[in-house]
């Protein structure tokens, strides 16, 4: 008589369902990889352990930027046909940034639907590609915090301040968001 014990998955990963869509299997794998090999600058997990399509991330404001010291909470919502289409990303923590609209929605090329840009701002290779992962998305967002794209703003007011008064009003608003993020980071 031989018994074979298989270790149960970590508590943050729901059990594998054999009829699970490919997108769920891919998301499960990416989450396991991030848990096994964390990346500096962010952490990620599921909002609800039974829903692989909704993630919560904490992004640490990059060093030597106005966002340094901030702990910004955001949600990633994945479509059922991920990775063919990109997730949506929304900051839950208030953030003042040219590429984040006033509702918290992140507007960067890597999260735009694949294909040609009807406005001609982006090349197809700058937009979503199925090779991107949660890790590459979050690294791009950290890069966006360090180096905003003022030419394609989601928050026109923040972009105007960033261009015209970076060390004045823009810096004050970002500092207020950083302080608030520190106070509410682990609520």
Describe the protein.
The structure is a single chain. The chain has 187 residues and is of the alpha+beta class. The protein has four helices and four strands, in the order αββββααα. The chain has a single domain, classed as Ubiquitin Conjugating Enzyme (Roll), CATH 3.10.110.10. Strands 1-2-3-4 form a four-stranded antiparallel β-sheet. Helix 3 packs across helix 4. The longest helix is centred in the C-terminal third of the chain and has 19 residues. The termini are far apart.
CATH third-tier fold name = Ubiquitin Conjugating Enzyme
Quick one: biggest sheet? 4 strands, antiparallel
Unreliable stretches, pLDDT < 50, 5 or more residues?
1-8
Q: Residue-averaged pLDDT, rounded?
A: 88
Question: How many β-strands, per DSSP?
Answer: 4
DSSP helix count?
A: 4
Report the end-to-end length measured between terminal Cα atoms. Answer: 50 Å
Helix percent band: 25-40%
| Helix and strand composition category | alpha+beta
**Compute the gyration radius: what is it?**
18 Å
Number of structurally distinct domains = 1
Morphology call: globular
* CATH classification class: Alpha Beta
CATH superfamily: Ubiquitin Conjugating Enzyme
Tell me the series of helices and strands, N- to C-terminal.
HEEEEHHH
Percent range for β-strand residues: 5-15%
Give the neighbour order of strands across the main sheet.
1-2-3-4
CATH architecture annotation: Roll
List keywords for this structure.
Ubiquitin Conjugating Enzyme; 187 residues; 4 strands; alpha+beta; 4-stranded antiparallel beta sheet; disordered N terminus
